Amino acid sequence: MLKIGDQVPTGTLQEFIEVEGNGCSLGPNAVDIAGAVAGKTIAVFALPGAFTPTCSAQHVPGYIAQADALKAAGVDEIWCVSVNDAFVMGAWAREQKTADKVRMLADGSADFTKATGLTLDLLSRGMGLRSQRYSMLLVNGQVKTLNIEAPGKFEVSDATTMLAQAQAL
């Protein structure tokens, strides 16, 4: 399992882009993790699924609300990662109004999630293999903080905790 001091797993996530520009075409675009984290401080939070109750009502809105404060604390980007496809993540981004605040990144086949060792088996609930709820602060790809929630909890992966950790670096 991923731990503080590790390098974030390499691989590719997908991001749905609705407006062409800045070198991005319309539709799903591959995000090379190693290249995207190089030389940057990234606040990552992962969750079990798009449009799910806690994720939609608390987790994503918290990071949107704290986006400016996180950037003032030295965070270059905020990523939300979920085991969903890029189209679902794009629709959720529109619904949550994440533009210019949080990058909504799809881990459609759970490859990144498996590489972190932070999977959540929701097969019995009809949701398949998902991600545990967690957050981490990456500096140049290295895990500086890692906050893994207990099953069914939302206590340590929130934006307020991440902000305090970013300010302490």
TrEMBL record:
Q: Which reaction does it catalyse?
A: a hydroperoxide + 2 glutathione = an alcohol + glutathione disulfide + H2O
- Name the UniProt key words of this record, in alphabetical order: Antioxidant, Oxidoreductase, Peroxidase, Redox-active center
Record bears the keyword DNA damage: no
Q: Which residues are in the Thioredoxin domain?
A: 2-168
Q: Which Pfam families does the UniProt entry name for this protein?
A: Redoxin
SUPFAM superfamilies with a match to the protein in the record = Thioredoxin-like
| EC code | 1.11.1.27
Residue ranges spanning the membrane: these are none
Statement: the UniProt record of this protein carries the keyword Membrane: no
Instruction: Please report which protein family the annotation says this sequence is part of.
Output: Belongs to the peroxiredoxin family. Prx5 subfamily.
Q: Tell me, what does this protein do in biology? A: Thiol-specific peroxidase that catalyzes the reduction of hydrogen peroxide and organic hydroperoxides to water and alcohols, respectively. Plays a role in cell protection against oxidative stress by detoxifying peroxides.
Q: What is this protein called?
A: Glutathione-dependent peroxiredoxin
Q: Which organism is it from?
A: Roseateles koreensis
